[in-house]
Structure formats: C-alpha cells, structure tokens
Amino acid sequence: MMPAPLPWTALAPLIVLAGSAVVVMAVIAFHRGHRLTLALTLIGLGATLALLPAAARAPRAATSLLTVDGFALFFIGLAAAAALVVALLGYDYLSRQEVRREEFYILLLVATLGAATLAAASHLVSFFLGLEILSVSLYGLNAYLHRQALPLEAGIKYLVLAASSAAFLLFGMALLYAATGTMSFAGLAGALPAAPTSLVLPGAMLVLVGVGFKLGLVPFHLWTPDVYQGAPAPVAAFIATASKAGVFAVLLRFFYLAGGSHSQRAMLAITVLAIASMVGGNLLALRQRNLKRLLAYSSIAHMGYLLVALEAASASRAMAAAAVGFYFLAYFITTLAAFGVISLLSNGAGEPADVEDYRGLYWRRPWLALVLTAMLLSLAGIPLTAGFLAKFYVVAAGAAATLWLLLLVLVVTSVIGLFYYLRVVAAVFAAPGAAPALALTRPLAWSGGCVLGVLLAALIWIGVYPQPFLHLVLSLPLR
Amino acid sequence: MILAWLLIILVVAGALAAFTARWGALAPRIISLSAIALDFVLTLAIWIGAGTGPHAGQWLREFDVSWVPAFGIHFHLALDGLSLLLLLLTLVLGMAAVLASWRDIQTSVGFFHLNLCWILAGIAGVFLAMDLFLFYFAWELMLVPMFFLIAIWGHERRQYAAVKFFLFTQLSGLLMLIAILALYLAHHAATGVYTFEYSALLATPLRPGVAMAIMLGFFAAFAVKLPMFPFHTWLPDAHTEAPTAGSVILAGLMLKTGAYGLLRFVLPLFPGAARAFAPWALVLAAIGILYGGLLAYAQTDIKRLVAYTSVSHMGFVLLGVFAAALAVPGSGAAHWALEGVVLEMLCHGFATGALFVIAGFLQERLHTREMGRMNGLWEVMPRLGGAGLFFALAAVGLPGLGNFVAEFLILLAGFQVNVGVTVAAAIGILVSTFYGVEMVQRAFHGPNRHGWQVADLRWREALVLAPMMVALLWLGLYPRPVIRTAAASLQAIEQRTGGTQ
Q1: A16 touches chain B (CB under 8 A)
Q2: What are the residues facing B427 on neighbouring strands?
Q3: Which residues does residue A347 pair with via DSSP β-bridges, in sequence order?
Q4: How far is A316 from chain B (nearest CA, A)?
Q5: Chain A contacts of B157, Cβ < 8 Å?
Q6: β-pairing, B61-68 with B73-79?
Q7: Which residues contact A165 (CB under 8 A, 6 or more apart)?
C-alpha cells in the first residue's frame, strides 16, 4: 500500500511549533540573547496562530495518529496564545532572576507542542506521545529556578507524580489494546462493546486515573497546590491553562469517539469525579492563605465544572463541546491574567504569595488591583466578565441534559467559591497595612502591562458581546 | 432607544467619574449628580408625555436588539407604568445618595461614584429588562459595586457584612439562574424556540409540579432580596455597615428589586404555583412583619433599628403580593393589594431612605450610631429633629403620609383572603408605633445629657430630605396619579393571576 502523502497544511501548525523549538535551540548554541530568543519564540508562536485558519480548510484526518479538525485547532490556538502570554510574562519575570534565561523558551515551545499534539490526538499512541512531550518539558520548567528550594520541590513532585500517572495511563492503554486489538479512538468505539468487560473496565478506569492526575481532579489532586505554589508564576500559568486544556481536549475526544457517553459506568465515574472535584476544590480553597495555592484549588473546582459540561454530551455533543471550548477560552484569559499579576509583582527575592501581601494593593497599584479583581470575579462567574457567560453556558448545557444533581452541586460549591475569591478581593481593597511585605517600587514592565491590558479587554469584550466567540466555538466540528 | 440611553448615561458617567477623580473630589460628584439628574429629567419627560390616563399598548417605551443570537438572547428593555414609577424612585434616591455622601466620602471618591452609578445602572436595568437573561445580568451586576461600596467605605465590620450580603444574594441568584434556564428549556421543549423573551415565556405551558419548582427558584432570589423572614439575616449587617449612600440604595432600591421581581415574574409567569404557595408566603410575611418590628424595637444602634423596620415593611409587600395571588377574581382584593404593594414600595423607599440619610447625618456629626449616646438633640438641631420625627411617623404609618395608604390597602385586601394573617399584620403596625416613637424619643428628646454642640441641618442636607417629604405627603394625600400610572401594568398582572381559576 502506498503511504498517503502527508497533509502539510493540516500539520503546518504542529510542524512550525516543533521547528521554532529547534531554531531557538540552534540560535542559543551560537548566541545567547534574552531579547533575541524571546523574539524568535514570539515569531514561532505567531506563525503557528497565523497558520490555523489555513489548516482549518485542510483535510481533517492528518495521518492515522492525528485528527486536525476545528476542535483540535481551537485548542492548539488556545495553547499557542497561552504560550505567547507566558513567554511575555516570563521575559519580565526571568530578567529579574539570576539564571540562564534562554532555555526557558525552548522548554515552553516543546511543552506547547505537547499540548497541541494532545488536542489533535485520535490514537492512543499520539495521546501518550503528546502527554509525555508535555510532561517532560514541564519537569524542566517547574524546576527552572533550580537554585531556589520551592521550584525544585515542585519540579521533583511533578516528576514523581506525573511519571507514576503516566504508568497508570500506559497500563490502561495496554489493557484496552489487549481487549480490542486496536489503538485508534474510532476503532475502539467499534470494538469496545464486544470486548470482554474484565479487560475494558480496568483499562478505561486506569486511563481515567492517568487523565485525572493530569487534570488535578479530586482524589488525584495532591500535586496541584504544591506545584502551583512552587513553580515560577508564568510556569504555573502555563500548567493551569495549556497543559490542562490539552489533556481535557484529548479526554473529550476519547470520551466521545470511544463511546463513553453511552456507557453508564463511564458516566457514573465522571459524575463522581466531578462532584468530588467541585466540592473538594472549593472546600480546600477556603482555608488557603496563599494566593497560588488558592488558585490551584480553584482550578481543581473549575475542572469539576468542566466535567459537568463533558457529561452534558449525553444530550447534545455539539453543545457540550462548545461549552467546554468556551469555558476554556474564558478560563485561559482569567488564569493567565491572575498569574500574570502575581508574576508582575514578583522580584528577585520571590513572589508575593500570601493573601496578606495583597492587602491594600488597590491603594498602591490600582491597575494591577483592578485586573486581579476582574479576574477573580470572572473565576467566580460574575456578569460583565467572560467567566459569567462560561459558567452560564456550562449550566445551560447541564440543564439541557437534565443533570440536576450536578447543577445543584455546581451552584452550591460556586457560592462557596465566591467566598474565598471575595476574601482576596476584600483584602485587595482593604486599607493598606503598615508596611508591604514586598517592595512594590519597581515600575510596571511594559510587556507584562500590555499583556494584562489585552487580557482584561478580552475578558470584558467576551463578557459583554460574546456572539463572535460563541459562533466560533459552535462551529467546531468534533470528529 | 431612550431606555438604552438611560443606562448608557449612568455607565459612562460612572467611568468618567473614576477618570476625573485625579482633578479633585468635586468632579466625580458633579458628574454623577448631573448624570442621574439628566436621567431623572428624561424619565420625567416620558411620564409627562404619557399622561396619567390609561394608554394603548403595554409599553410606554421599548428598545429591542438582538444581543447573543446563538442563545436567543435579546437586549430588550421596555418601560410600563410600574417600571416608570420605580425608575423615578431609583433616580430620586440616587441623587439623594450622591448628595448625602458629599462630605461623608473622602477616600477614593472617583471609584466610589463609579460604583454608585453602576449600581443605579444595574437597578435601572432590572426594572427595565424584558429578556430574562438580561434581567439576570442586571440582577447580578448591581451586586459587585454594592459589595465594594460596603467593603471599602463601610463602617467597623464592613468586610464581614459585605461578604455576607454577597453570598446570600449570589446563592439565591444562582437558584434563579437555574430556574430561568429550566423555563427557557421548557419553552423550547414546548414550542421549539429558544428565547428568553418575557412575553414569549408567559405563554409557556408547564405542568404544576414543574411550575412550582421553577417558581421556587425565582422566589428564592426575590425572597432573599426582599428580604423574607428566615432569609433576612444579611440585611441588618449590610444596612448598618454600609456608608449612608449604600444604606439608602440598599433599603430604598435593592429591596424593591425583590418586590418588583415578585410582581413582574412570579405572579404572571406562575399564577397557579403562586396561588398554591401563597398560604406559606402569607404566614412568613406576617412573621416577618412582627419579628422585624419587635427586633427593631430592641435595637440601640439607630441604623440597625431602621434596618429591621425594613424587614417589617417588606413583610407587607410580601403579604400584598400573595394576597393578590389568592384573591377571588372580581372581588377587588387583588386590585387593592397590588396598588398597596406599589405604594408601599415607593413610600418605604422614600421614608427608609430618608431615615438612613438622617442616621448618616447624625453619625457624621456625633461619630456614633448608639441612641443611648444621643439624647436631647432637638435642643441643638431642631430642624434635623423635626425631619427625623416626620420620617419616623411616615414609617409608623401616620394617616396623611403615603405608608398609611399603602398598608391600609394591603390590609384591606388581606382581610378578604386570610383574616388571621391580616390581624397579625395589623398588630405589626402597632409594633411600628413603638419603635418609631422610641427612636425619636431616645435620639432627639429629653435633656441634652452629653452636651452635644453640633451644627443643624445644612441647606445641602435639607435639599436631600425635602423632595422625599414632598413625595411622602403627595403619596399620602393624593396618590391617584401614581396609582393611575401603574394601573395598566397592575391590571395585566391581575388578569394573569385571575386567569387560571
């Protein structure tokens, strides 16, 4: 059989991402320049984003491993845009650190490639490949400031837990393969109903465990707060957004294509994970005094909300996929900007971690305080922000699928969530304390300031006039 | 289009106030005051243009553009007599709030007025929205600025009060969101059309059990805002800790959004379910009237006292609304009850708003809200004392002032529906004389034991109170034009509730 010619246009975004990582690496070998490396990274990511519309017109099934459809391209776009923001935040962040700065961008590009591969994966091999590309570069990114204790701890913790979860995942895939003799999602869908339950059930559950680890779902969430706390703020932003979105995209595709929405057991497992994550994430966040840990627990809860949308596929697959896409769009903007504020407020001595460090921020840095407030309100789902419409969409999808129990849990836990977001907001606007823990005399970095401005504008634009974005996510064919 | 302008003016004025704060504290005050005044003049022009007689068509003004076609969401604003009256109340109290905080607020003046204008925009949006998504949007929108108003410029326990206020209203609001979505999906299931349009959803056929569940979702949000008896605990904290402007808006306007929701949504959308639920609501209303009154009597903090009177007075609103739901069609009881509810909303807004303004003036001068530390203030400030007496008597329900007419109408209707509850509510009026007279006695009468030497009412302060006095007298002596303005809207509600016999 003749191998089919490679669909270059469809694969172009992935190829450009991989290529820019190689170019950056090669350039660093000859000339170390922080600004030059940043510029090359931005060009690479910008080219990736620019190629997306062309790829959307190209053939969909690009090789037997990858399906480059609208859904995949949307998530590739989100990941690349997130990497763009992280690169700009990282430039400012790293320029205040005593480390070799340039390799950060190689790791970032490779991690983005991993997330992009996951988004397009339609085969167990590309699923695992993408996950490992992502994880291995994240080990490095987490521990990038290897002279400090916390990042090092975060890196090692992530290494151990990600590796063990990958082992679970791999074993689960092996069981599925043993039961069906196929590794493509579509093939699994055909073979699974006839396959022996004794192999399929443990296999599917082990895959779910592996994915649960990556998404930080309760009860597989233990690494999340420690890694968020320890990792440099821009890296934590990337883990919270691009990494989770990539894994969620592949979960969604796997779940739909392999027929998970028809399986009672799979739905039950997802329901349990969703409720545990919404309740656990929000309750555990209540007691947090550390903003990054608080955001970590909040992200666990948000993954729980997203699982509600995932389950709504039982009523309408298109609506569920659109709700997930729209939720991630809002979540990306919000999380990137929230970590961006932390990143911009940090200096060589460290990051302002404690909520107390933000007490009275409004009186010292009104703009940063307003950005942080807007982002926290968006996470809480307050109108005028993108987070409100995202949550609305998830609730609407859940209501259409008559998931009343999940919706009730969602409502009650998001009010609990509101409580800790408001606590931070109240601290931001409280009368300033005697002496700020961190000196905030440094002027705002131009790159970071522009990024936050754009993110805030996007947040409010989507919150007020979501039609173009809804149109976009509704036109995402998922194959 | 004029309706959209009403909102745009407020939103833009808020943003301008925040930006101009760098040139001094006066600019934000003048900008927000003139924006609210401009809105007031525009609304007044609509009122005068419409006349006070019955008019053809349901809406006086309407504005409808597609907003989010993907979900069938429209930016649909419409104004009828009921919304018009509440809009006028909103703008009058809005001006009072700006004037009352002229000296009170000295920190972050720009951001303060941003919040103030945006709360008013949210409230006006609630009164105008005819698309349920837009309604929920506006409903939630007024919370965040109010949270800031309490949390930043409030008194000693402001953070606690602000968070409690937000959590109560947010939880109930989310229940309403689910109810709105359930109604939206039920409408789609019945007709195949996705829409949040009020007039379309009115015609949604619902099974009684479903209608009851959805109605309770709406009711939860409105009962917390109103507030109804077991859900009132956020109110004393929020009202007491808020700055004067915040208390005026909370008591005068935000509580009215709950009452408005009952009138506009609960009764017409779910007449059968409202009727089935009415006995419970009537009992809770009577408990609220008595309990609020008794707790008000027991307070020593003047703002807390006024706050608890709101629980009592809004009990009358709840009583009236559900008396209308239960009334036998053609008996006139529904008619009286609804008229009474509208008058009670307006009068309570003016009287309680004014009492909070007076409490604010007292605190500004004396730096205390404890009535035990006041005594004999009449000697040093007779004008403020007189104003206090006037509004206290209005709250008590003195004939000649608006509250009397309102409560009389509600009791008249209630008596035909449920004698026991109405008798209990009438005892509530008696309780109100205790706390009203007690407040004036403790704060203003007796010897000036603490030797206060403070300024009497200034002209700017008198300017805040005078229109409210006029309004209360007008509503008490000649309420007819106001009732006629609301008549068409009330008749529409009455027809819906009477239609499902």
Answers
A1: no
A2: none
A3: A350
A4: 13
A5: none
A6: antiparallel
A7: A209, A210, A212, A213, A214, A220
Q: Report long-range pairs for B163-166 (Cβ below 8 Å, ≥24 apart).
A: B163/A419, B163/A422, B163/A423, B163/A426, B164/B233, B164/B234, B164/B237, B164/B238, B165/B234, B165/B237, B165/B238, B166/A418, B166/A422
* Residues β-bridged to residue B76: B64
Please enumerate in sequence order all residues whose Cβ is within 8 A of that of B71, keeping only pairs 6 or more positions apart, or say none.
Answer: A396, A470, B133, B194, B196
- Is residue B23 within 8 A of residue B453, CB to CB? The reply is no
Tokens of A200: 């399929």
| Nearest CA-CA partner of A116 in A156, A81, A76 | A76
SS3 content of chain B, % helix, strand, coil (to 5): 80, 5, 20
ipTM: 0.82
Q: A46 vs chain B: nearest CA distance in angstroms?
A: 30
Looking at residues A376-395, what average pLDDT do you find?
Answer: 91
Neighbouring residues of A474: CB distance < 8 A, sequence distance ≥ 6 = A318, A322, B70
Backbone phi and psi for residue A400, each to the nearest 5 degrees, phi listed first: -65, -30
Q: What does the block give as tokens for B368?
A: 């205390």
Give, as one character, the DSSP assignment of residue B252.
I
Residue type for position B60: L
Task: Classify burial at B249, counting beta carbons within 10 Å of its beta carbon; exposed 0-12, middle 13-18, buried 19 or more.
Answer: buried
Q: Tell me phi and psi for residue A221, to 5 degrees.
A: -95, 0
The per-residue pLDDT for range B450-488, each reduced to its tens digit, is 777 888 888 888 888 999 999 999 999 998 888 888 888
Across the interface, whether the CB atoms of B163 and A399 are under 8 A apart is answered no
Burial of A42 (0-12, 13-18, 19+ CB in 10 A): middle
Name the residue facing B68 among A422, A426, A470 (closest C-beta): A470
User: What is the C-alpha separation between A440 and A344, in angstroms, rounded?
Assistant: 10
State pLDDT tens for residues B299-342.
989 999 999 999 999 999 999 999 998 888 777 888 889 999 99
The amino acid sitting at B326 is: L
Classified as helix, coil or strand, A359 is: coil
